[in-house]
């Protein structure tokens, strides 16, 4: 289950969040080859971020996956998520950073049941 956590200094009040989540979820699912219902997306706006010596619109995203993410998948994620952030939140692609983490699974890992 990939989890994408996005923090941005952009105020997201008035942003069509449903559309944003829909586009990001389908994009991550397609690139990582996972069903959409396995993708989690977190969006936090108005986070104090100082990047490149200024406070202009910027974003930091982290993706955590149980599976390893190879170089090509990482390249596609950076390109596509960067485009979405630019289109939906006006964050320039040059002011976006993506960190990729592979989650370590343990033998005692349990999954909560709802």
CATH class: Alpha Beta
Instruction: Determine the CATH superfamily.
Output: Macrophage Migration Inhibitory Factor
The main β sheet shows up as: 4 strands, mixed
Helix content: 25-40%
Structural class: alpha/beta
Under the CATH scheme, the architecture is 2-Layer Sandwich
Order of helices and strands: EHEEHE
Name the average pLDDT: 91
State the distance separating the first and last CA atoms.
16 Å
What percent strand?
15-25%
Low-confidence stretches: 106-114
Net shape: globular
- The figure for the number of domains is 1
Give the total of beta strands.
4
Radius of gyration: 15 Å
Please, how many helices? 2
How would you write the strand order of the largest sheet? 2-1-3-4
InterPro entries: Macrophage_inhib_fac (IPR001398), Tautomerase/MIF_sf (IPR014347)
GO molecular function: phenylpyruvate tautomerase activity
GO cellular component, one term: extracellular space
Family: Belongs to the MIF family.
Secondary structure layout plus pairing:
Elements: E1 3-8, H1 17-32, E2 40-44, E3 59-65, H2 71-89, E4 96-102
Parallel strand pairs: 1-2, 3-4
Antiparallel strand pairs: 1-3
Helix pairs in contact: 1-2
Family: Belongs to the MIF family.
GO molecular function, one term: phenylpyruvate tautomerase activity
InterPro entries: Macrophage_inhib_fac, Tautomerase/MIF_sf
Can you walk me through this structure?
- This is OLC1v1033596C1.
- One of its GO terms (cellular component) is extracellular space.
- Belongs to the MIF family.
- GO terms for molecular function: phenylpyruvate tautomerase activity.
- This protein is α/β, with parallel strands linked by helices and 114 residues long.
- The protein has a single domain (3-102), classed as Macrophage Migration Inhibitory Factor, CATH 3.30.429.
- The protein is built from 2 helices and 4 strands, in the order βαββαβ.
- Strands 2-1-3-4 form a 4-stranded mixed beta sheet, with helices on one face.
- Strand 1, helix 1 (17-32) and strand 2 form a beta-alpha-beta unit.
- Helix 1 packs antiparallel against helix 2 (71-89).
- It is globular, with a radius of gyration of 15 Å.
- The chain starts with a strand and ends in a 12-residue tail after the last strand.
- Mean pLDDT is 91; it is low at 106-114.
